[in-house]
Amino acid sequence: MTADKDQEVDHGQDAAGGLAAYESDLRRAERKVAGEIDPGLRAVVVAVGVLVAMLSMVLPHTGTASGIEVLTFAPDADAERVTITSEVFVYLLTIFGIGVSAFALLTRRWLLAWIALCGNAVACVAGMLAWWSRNTPGVGGIEPPSGVGIGLIIGWLAVLVLTFHWARVVWARSTYHLALEEQRRKEAATRDAVARSLQLKPDRDA
Q1: Where are the domains of the chain?
Q2: From residue 95, how far is each of 51, 89, 114 by CA, in Å?
Q3: What gap in Å lies between CA 181 and CA 187, rounded to an integer?
Q4: Averaging pLDDT over each range in 93-102, 132-141, 183-192, which range is the top one?
Q5: Hey, CA dihedral for 80, 83, 88, 93, is it positive or negative?
Q6: DSSP assignment letter at 140
Q7: Higher pLDDT, 52 or 193
Q8: How far apart are the first and last CA of the chain?
Q9: Neighbour tally for 135: CB within 10 Å
């Protein structure tokens, strides 16, 4: 009888150990999945948005000054009296609209997608201010010699599209995270109940 009880105790300990190993594997898999994104068909839209943002950099943002010339403080940009808002927008467009967005799309990392979302959202505001500054007199009532260029318009529309789709990707992943956490809590509660029942069984038999 004692031998049977010892065997049941050992069996309960082995089961608990197996459940602990299963929980460890589950947590590792969950962390791996939680750090990745699956944009699906949105990946195509984001890729097109990145390409459009790159195209806008070679088109005139105001007058004859292209986005690249605004980015590099070229003489044409100085001649067009490019304001700080336009410069900020071009930098945000280059860093987040092109660089971080492309890197997040290639690596499928959730953190990079979140950074791309935040950067593009700020770029949306900067683009609106850049557009406004091209139609507003500056210090001393001096108006810019040229208005909004096609490059600025296309670049602003590109970051609007990127912001929308990165928001949908990040939101979907965040919802999935919550579902995973809820499922993990339920499975942990079930495993704890099974482990307690295995541990209490020898005592009831005694």
Answers
A1: 2-35+47-205
A2: 14, 10, 14
A3: 10
A4: 93-102
A5: negative
A6: G
A7: 52
A8: 9
A9: 10
